[in-house]
Design a protein that fits this description.
By secondary structure, the chain is mainly α. It contains 14 helices and no strands.
Length: 334
Amino acid sequence: MELLDSLPRAGWKVWVAAIIGSVLLLGIVLIQLDMTSLRTVADGLLMPVATAGLLLLLVEGVVTAARLSLMAGTHQPFVRALQANAWYSMLVVVIPARLGEIAAVLVMEKYLLQRPAPAFMSIIVQRLFDLIMLGTLFLLVLTSLASQLPPGISGLVACVVIGMALLAVYQMEALITLAARWLIGTRLPISRANRHKILRLLLQGRSWRRHLSSAGLIAAAFSLTVVKWLVTVGAIGTLLMALYYSLGWHSALLAAVAYCFMAAVPLQTIGGIGLGEAGLVFILSGMGVPVGVAAAMSLFVRLVLILFPVLFFGLVFVYTLFDRRSRDQERAIG
């Protein structure tokens, strides 16, 4: 409860905008639905294949926890990284307008003992790594999706995303310095105390970025990012196959990559809901899937991605109890 009480409060305007954004985008999907399509997807669900997709999502949760632990550099037991990722996953889904990323700073403080500025910068860098990986994967599949997505416009968007993310990662220290100088020189309508807090956050973040300068650390973090997204794409592709097996592995993986890339766009929605679903319907229908079935599939995938963090949280909680009991027994024996 202490952690929940410390979370940033989103104003009502943020909530309203997020809800409206999600409703409008989901409306595009919902108008394509009909009972026949829902029944087709439900009757054709292959539970063994769907279970394999859930197991892959579990692997992704473990890999993400490993990346959080590596980037924190505080050498905490791995179970604490799992706890941090469990809370992180829940907050990103629940809190609108990507404010879950900011709330996650408190999680990193509590479980990985990071200071606020390093925790915030760590999350930003990990998100930049994600964008670089997703943009690269999206570029690789554009040739196969040329009939559904305009390769010129889509490729340009992907290249811009990759370029800006790379620039932000490798020039972060310079960008932070520019931001600090701008904050000092400009007359913003904020109090002097808040101005000093922001400035301190920026300067501490710059110090943490110097910690990240090790080539080995960057390579390890990006390697975990590669594994994370390959597993995620595999999981979503497996879920799509479980819903519509005749789609084929190749098409399912291509659709999963496009879905992940579009879902990463930071629109004002709740938990990122909306754009990815609408885009997935568009892509699947272009692959020959009936529009109503494609809409049902996209909603099922989103439902799994919303509910899985709850399952992951529960599994981590149970594992934490066993880990604590094991440690207590070792102390008693010792």
